[in-house]
Structure formats: C-alpha cells, structure tokens
Amino acid sequence: MKKLAAVISASLLMAASTSAMAEVYVGAKAGKSWLDDACTSATVNCDKDDSTVGAFIGYEMWDFLSIEAGYDYLGKFDGQGLNNDKVEAYTLAPKVNLPITEDISLYGKFGGAFVNYGDEDDYSYLGAAGIEFDSHEHVAVRVEYQAITDINNDQVRAMGNSATIGVVYKFGETAEPAPVVVEEEPVVVEEPAEPEVITKTFETQRLGTGSFELNSAELKADSLEQLDELVDFLNTYPQANVQVIGYTDASGTEAYNQVMSEKRADAVANALVAKGIDASRITTAGEGEKNPIASNATHEGRVENRRVEIIVPEFDYQVQQ
C-alpha cells in the first residue's frame, strides 16, 4: 500500500482545493484486455486474452485537470497463480487534458489501483492515454489504452492492459442563447425652419454558440429567425450599414479559432444577404479567441465567448417638418 500513498494523497489534496464550479461526470467503457508477464516456462495452461468492461466517475476541476475513480473487470485468465480466475481493479488517478480543437482533446492519467488478481490482492500503478470527442452538449466518446503495472502475486509480476471505447455523460446546465434585445434611442437636434436631424442606432445583437450546429459555421433554423427584426430595421433605414464580427473561446489552436470565427461571421452575413440586404452594406471580420467577455477557465465562460456580434454604427437621417 505504501507505493500508492503519494498518488492518492496528491489526488485528494487537488480535489479539496477546487471551486464549487467543478463539473461531475460518469461513464462506462468496454473493449479488449490482455496480460503481460503472467506466465512462466513452468505454466501448464496460459490464456492471457479476454474482454473487459468498466465504469468510472470523475470530478472536473478545470478544463485541463480532473480526478477520476473507476472499476475495471479485466476478464478471466490462466497463468502462473491463475486458474481461470478473474482479474479486477479499483482505480484512482488525476486526468490531464490537452485540447486540440473546440470538441477534441487528448488526455493522460497516472495514478494507482487496488487489484484482485485471482486469490491475491495487490496495490499497483496505473497509466492511461486516450482521445476524447465531445459529440453532444453533455455526452463525450473516448478511445483509451490503459496499463496497470507491477501486479505481484508472489509468483510473477504481471501487467494488465486494456484498449477500450467509452461513453461519458457530463452533468451541468445547457447554456441558452442570450435573448435579442432591440432598443432605439433617438437624439433629436431641433433647428427652426430646418429639417429635423435624428441620430439612430441599433443595439448590438449577439448570437451565441447555441445558434450554430455543433463545431460548425451552419446557422440553425431558429437562429435565422432572430435576424428578422434586424432585417426590418435595415429595410426601414437604407442608409444604415452593419458589421458582423465572430469570436471563439480559447480552446484549440489559435489558427483553428481564427478560421472558425471568420466562417461564422460569414454565415451570418450570407443569411442577411439571403433575406434581401445588399452585400455592400455588410462588413465581416473574425477575431478568434480575442476580446473574451467571460473567463475561459469555466464551461459557462467558454459558451459565452463563442459568439457572433452584429453592430449597426450610428447614422443620421433627416425628417422633413
């Protein structure tokens, strides 16, 4: 047990130091398992391959770090000290994430395991590496290789391996797009016997990440309807122009984020053109991960930062008296 003490103590200290904004998740996995170094030249029967299933629960403290506990049934094996006996493990390890894009990340785990190896029990080390795909707001899919080393039954020191596919469910609230608020605030400058000059504007309209298909620049049908009030305003005041600016969160590479922000801005501009607004009145830009409006350290903050802002600069028009 001494060889697990440092790993478990460090994991518990990290969990105790996190904020209440952490995210809990659960998951299950299945795949192929095999043992290394489980047989010797004296072993009569040796069967080192089987199927594995497992379950786990995790606590995501930050985007890049979680603490994860699990149970693995590695299967039944014949080997030195094993006679068609099952091997199972209870695991605890920190999980370190490395985002590649907005919805794909690599991860690694290093921790400890308590292993039931036939009639023997042992404390061992655990290491794992994998790739995770966010396929839905709350659901992710994993592909993982895991190794549990130094399983000692006083006859051999074996290693338990597994290659699995898993599904993860993440608890938490789904962020809803912010409502579109339109406000007109005219400023009247009165001059006797002269036409009345009024300065008009249109409050900045923001389309959140929920307005687009997952990891895509394609606008959802209900998001297109949010543009109707803006289109009516532009048709009423043909001297008004519009600026469309796309933003992302800080996940993924800077180059990927820049391209995605430009594509989403262009998608909104194309939707306005399709609704009858002349393209010469529209300018677009992509700012990537620049100018965040919330913290990229939380899931909710990243949702707010993935947005498209629509701005109508102030303009003057004359009203004949």
Automatic annotation (TrEMBL):
GO terms under cellular component: cell outer membrane; pore complex
Organism: Vibrio xiamenensis
PANTHER family xrefs: LIPOPROTEIN YIAD-RELATED, STATOR ELEMENT OF FLAGELLAR MOTOR COMPLEX
Domain OmpA-like, residue spans: 200-316
Any one GO biological process: monoatomic ion transport
Alphabetical keyword list: Cell outer membrane, Ion transport, Membrane, Porin, Signal, Transmembrane, Transmembrane beta strand, Transport
Signal peptide: 1-22
UniProt topology in membrane: Multi-pass membrane protein
Domain of life: Bacteria
Protein name in UniProt: OmpA-OmpF porin, OOP family
Subcellular location: Cell outer membrane
